[in-house]
Each structure stands twice: as structure tokens, then as C-alpha cells.
């Protein structure tokens, strides 16, 4: 018997076909209104901030809007690799931009160890097969997934970028990269597909489910780790430089 999965309550809708993908823009009025309110609040809060923080917020908002409004949202329903790419963009691009936009004095008070623990738990928990599948069962669970990933990694990135403890920040970046790479490796070498929602959706895009899963694993194993490794190198260079403090100002 073929496995069945219902997408009736999937936030991004039913799995698209390649032919209709480009027409699958997300016009959810609540999302659009939320984006407008976040933009207004952010630009008001940052009106006296330096140009770098303003641009960081603008970049984070623009990418987040693209991830949730464009056909990328629908593609993540069909392809596990697209959903993982979505999570990577959220945690490795949007989160550090948001972290940089935050007031530096906030970030310097936040501790690195709890941020590493929470971001690791969020990443692994939401990529267990049952929790992952549950995110398709109701919009509230979908948004809980997105919010927990974004908030925990924003906390992590705030410490990585702003902490005055360069050695600790470098070590945390390395540990975060290791655990993410390990999860990616598990997906690459898993002998069979693990995620029920995509068992019947990937072949329309020319991918067997196990190949889609392996592609997702490679994305999480290599490209997702590049920003963290860049932080590690930057922090190590800061330790040997003449500059006494390596944190971003």
C-alpha cells in the first residue's frame, strides 16, 4: 500500500507541480500585514542606528519576505531539499543579519552556551521525522517551527558576532558547525527516505525521495556551515591580531 499524507492543513498549500510552481505566490493577508508591521517597527526602532544595522535589518526583512511570500514556500512542500534550504537561509543568513541589527549592548549580555544548546535542540527536534511531518498538519505548528529556529539562531548569532570572548565565540561556532554537519551526514547516508510528506512529491521534480533527502543533507553539511566556519576563522584571527577586542561594534 502506498503511503499517504494529507496536505489539507499545510500552510504553504498542496505540493506544486513544476508547471504551476511560478504561480504559487503566498498572498496570506495575515503574513503580509505582519511583514508590513515588522518593517514599520524595525525602521522606526533603528531610525537613529548606524547605517550598517539599518541595512542588516533591511536585508533580513527582504530575504524573510522572499522565503515566505515567493513560490519558495510552495516548493518546500514538494521537496525536502527545498525545505532544508529554506531553514538554512533562515538560520544562516536572516538570523545573523537580525543579530547584527540588534543593539550591540543587548547581545553582549547574552550567554553563548544556552544559545548553542537551544539552537541545537531546535534544529534537531524539527528535523526528526515525526516533528517535521507535524509542521504540515497545521499552520500554527509550521510557524512554531519557523519562529523557534529563527529566534534561537538569532540569539546564537548575536553572541557569535558581538561577544568580547573571542575564544568562546570561536568554539561555539565550531560546535554549532559540527552538530549541523553531523545531522547533514545522517541525512546523506540514511539508506532510505525518512520523511513521509515527501515520499510522493519529489519525483515530479525528477528526484527520488532518497536523492532529495541526500541533497538536503549535503546542503546542511557543507553550505550551511560556511558562515559558521567564517566566524571561527575571524575569531581566531582576532586572537592573534593587535586589536584587543574582536567583537563587532
From TrEMBL:
<dbReference type="InterPro" id="IPR019108">
    <property type="entry name" value="Caa3_assmbl_CtaG-rel"/>
</dbReference>
<keyword id="KW-0472">Membrane</keyword>
<dbReference type="GO" id="GO:0005886">
    <property type="term" value="C:plasma membrane"/>
</dbReference>
<feature type="transmembrane region" description="Helical">
    <location>
        <begin position="30"/>
        <end position="46"/>
    </location>
</feature>
<feature type="transmembrane region" description="Helical">
    <location>
        <begin position="141"/>
        <end position="161"/>
    </location>
</feature>
<feature type="transmembrane region" description="Helical">
    <location>
        <begin position="218"/>
        <end position="242"/>
    </location>
</feature>
<feature type="transmembrane region" description="Helical">
    <location>
        <begin position="86"/>
        <end position="103"/>
    </location>
</feature>
<keyword id="KW-1133">Transmembrane helix</keyword>
<feature type="transmembrane region" description="Helical">
    <location>
        <begin position="58"/>
        <end position="80"/>
    </location>
</feature>
<dbReference type="Pfam" id="PF09678">
    <property type="entry name" value="Caa3_CtaG"/>
</dbReference>
<keyword id="KW-1003">Cell membrane</keyword>
<protein>
    <recommendedName>
        <fullName>CAAX protease</fullName>
    </recommendedName>
</protein>
<feature type="transmembrane region" description="Helical">
    <location>
        <begin position="168"/>
        <end position="190"/>
    </location>
</feature>
<keyword id="KW-0812">Transmembrane</keyword>
<feature type="transmembrane region" description="Helical">
    <location>
        <begin position="115"/>
        <end position="135"/>
    </location>
</feature>
